[in-house]
Amino acid sequence: MKTLYLITARGGSKGIPGKNIKPLAGKPLIEHTISCALRAGASPDDICVSTDSEEIAAVARNLGLKIPFIRPSELATDSAGSYPVMIHALDFFLNRDVEYDRIILLQPTSPFRLPEDIINAASLWTPETDMVVSVTEAAANPYYDAFETDDDGFLHISKGDGSFTRRQDAPKVWQYNGAVYVISTSSLRKGPFNTFKKIVPYCMPRERSVDLDTPADWMLAEFIFANQLNNLK
Length: 233
What we know:
single chain, alpha/beta
């Protein structure tokens, strides 16, 4: 079984300008993810940083990685999703007679992911699985405190009959935290994530599920590092 560790890091970012190379806890953000992949046992030859930025590429090279390609500009826009970026990487290697059974997608915006998160999520994957994805318990629960409006503009519970009076009694619900995706390439060739039927959750605590999208997220990450709340790093 052959695994491609794909780190997606475009140069443009409106929420946090230059975030992938912006220093966090003394090193560029992307270094946290590269280091995590290496500590999880990934060979440098099987780690691919897909980027359109020469600055990001230079950081990766300084950490011992090869940059096999610079991502085309049409795959580095605000509207470009992960799916075409993954297919582009797979096709690049396939054209060089390198075929992967699965992709482990690692986004640089999850700096509190641990090597064991990658290892443990990967251990849940089987060839019959479309994807193993890291999740955390959702902050809002559609059975308890998530609401929708009806045609008259009045709120009603999103799911169920509204009979739960304690959050602890409501069914648990999960949200993707963006840290680890272990994806069968055969499934990926058939369509994007929303077409997958066999998705296995890998659960992570909320304190390791911070996803950096806004300046407020960045401030929270700096606080966590400064106060050594992530004591396994």
